[in-house]
Amino acid sequence: MDPDILRSYIPMFSEAFLLTVRIGWIGILISLALGILCAFILYFRIPAASFLVKCYVELFRNTPLLVQLFFIYYGLPALGIRISAEVCGALGLGLLGGSYMTESIRSGLEAIPYIHTESALSLGMSRSQLFSSVILPQAFYISIPGIIANVIFLLKETSVFSAISLMDLMFRAKDLIGLYYNTTESLFLLVVFYVIMLLPVSVAGSVIEKKVRYRMFGD
User: Positive or negative, the Cα torsion across 148, 153, 156, 157?
Assistant: First the structure.
């Protein structure tokens, strides 16, 4: 392990780190928006839309992100649709994450005991008040652990972005190893920067889960 090599590599890894984080979090925001929309469609059982959402969820949950990225980046140009590698990465991650977020949020919505609904209606609440004041808050609390786990999973999935020539952390590590054969230093920095990216999310997620559990169950 050569400290001089590490110091010379840090700026390059930092640049790749910022790119990875930016695309990763854009993809996560897309996945959350898509997951909420699809979960509501499934929860309210909108006929035609529910079938399409189920097909989407099964398709993207059962195919690797790498295959999805190849289809978007290399397949869509054959149809006359060309997008940049960054947009492809964010879109692919968002579509994959949306399928997982859909199931996490849907399970939260469907986990609300029916007696809560009956009690709210018996108190004179309207359907909109029932959903916004009773169902949605509880569903959010129940879904939090699954959402946080999905966020961590999606950030780790950014490691395949290098396959579409995105200059992310993995691309940078492989590039430097191929050029200079400093494998130990490159892999060490790769691990360090992934820990920097993921550890705060993991710690913050644990804190949020404990606070949510305390608010719901008091323990």
Answer: negative
